């Protein structure tokens, strides 16, 4: 089985590397071609366009930063749709809105090919380890066909239903992620204002019922106030903006989602966008100290 991979950023590169290490033939494209060098050294073939990737591949996977990038790679003049074969499968692992995933599925289906929206829960380290949680929307038989690939990339694949449902699941889990990290940040700021030591607060949270795996992942960042990006804050802001759009469309009132969207947007605007999502702590601290 020949696999095409488009998008070699913080997440895409380690995910594609795992597929090469698992023995798959890989055709890759990235707008900045230098990001493909490590993969080419491992045997991947560097293509000059998404169209060329599609021409060589049975399954094409995209992992891109936003909907505009996916649209261009899929439907542009040198896009996937120009080179795809009948019965090929396109898997979009980017975080986009459910309606955008449905739109992309329709474009692919018109070419007599198949589409799966399969965004992931997890950041760079799980991507390297192949322990992501894959959130799939699409036809069950297509997802079964792709299961060996998903098993390399993640620890579990959950099929939520038809196209768009994987993207709906991703927005839902990232809402909880954003709220959880903001909640921990506010807890630290409150405790510090009340005269508590940050290390003691971290120990308390770690041994309380509210401890979470994500808190443990980010604990050292909170303590050291150092936020190298595993999942950039600007991407969380983008995702919460998508949540806001879905709320407005479905007339849903979610107070915490509204507050989190404003906080992360403010943090992005104040220059923290390229830092890790947990840098929202700095945004909250700066408001209070």
Automatic annotation (TrEMBL):
SUPFAM superfamilies: 6-phosphogluconate dehydrogenase C-terminal domain-like, NAD(P)-binding Rossmann-fold domains. Residues 164-281 form the 3-hydroxyisobutyrate dehydrogenase-like NAD-binding domain. InterPro entries: 6-PGluconate_DH-like_C_sf, 6PGD_dom2, 6PGDH_NADP-bd, HIBADH-like_NADP-bd, HIBADH-related, NAD(P)-bd_dom_sf. GO terms for molecular function: NAD binding; NADP binding; oxidoreductase activity. Keywords: NAD, Oxidoreductase. The active site is at residue 170. Residues 2-161 form the 6-phosphogluconate dehydrogenase NADP-binding domain. Belongs to the HIBADH-related family. PANTHER family: 3-HYDROXYISOBUTYRATE DEHYDROGENASE-LIKE 1, MITOCHONDRIAL-RELATED. This is 3-hydroxyisobutyrate dehydrogenase. It comes from Heyndrickxia ginsengihumi. The lineage of its organism: Bacteria, Bacillati, Bacillota, Bacilli, Bacillales.
């Amino acid at each position: 089985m020949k696999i095409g991979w488009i998008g070699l950023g913080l997440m895409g590169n380690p995910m594609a590397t795992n597929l090469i290490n698992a023995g798959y033939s890989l055709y890759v494209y990235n707008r900045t071609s230098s990001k493909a060098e490590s993969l080419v050294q491992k045997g991947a073939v560097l293509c000059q366009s998404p169209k060329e990737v599609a021409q060589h591949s049975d399954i094409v996977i995209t992992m891109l930063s936003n909907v505009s990038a996916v649209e261009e790679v899929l439907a542009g003049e040198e896009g996937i749709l120009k080179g795809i074969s009948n019965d090929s499968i396109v898997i979009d692992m980017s975080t986009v809105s459910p309606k955008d995933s449905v739109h992309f599925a329709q474009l692919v289906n018109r070419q007599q090919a198949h589409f799966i929206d399969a965004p992931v829960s997890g950041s760079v380290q799980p991507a390297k380890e192949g322990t992501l949680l894959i959130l799939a929307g699409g036809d069950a038989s297509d997802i079964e066909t792709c299961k060996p690939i998903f098993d390399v990339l993640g620890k579990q694949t959950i099929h939520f239903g038809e196209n768009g449902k994987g993207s709906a699941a991703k927005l839902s889990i990232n809402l909880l992620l954003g709220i959880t990290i903001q909640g921990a940040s506010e807890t630290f700021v409150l405790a510090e204002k009340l005269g508590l030591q940050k290390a003691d607060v971290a120990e308390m949270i770690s041994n309380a019922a509210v401890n979470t795996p994500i808190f443990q992942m980010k604990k050292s960042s909170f303590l050291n106030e150092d936020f190298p990006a595993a999942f950039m804050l600007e991407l969380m802001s983008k995702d919460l903006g998508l949540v806001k759009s879905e709320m407005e469309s479905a007339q849903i009132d979610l107070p915490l989602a509204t507050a989190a969207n404003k906080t992360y947007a403010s943090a992005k605007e104040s220059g923290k966008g390229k830092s890790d999502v947990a840098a929202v702590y700095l945004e909250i601290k700066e408001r209070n100290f």
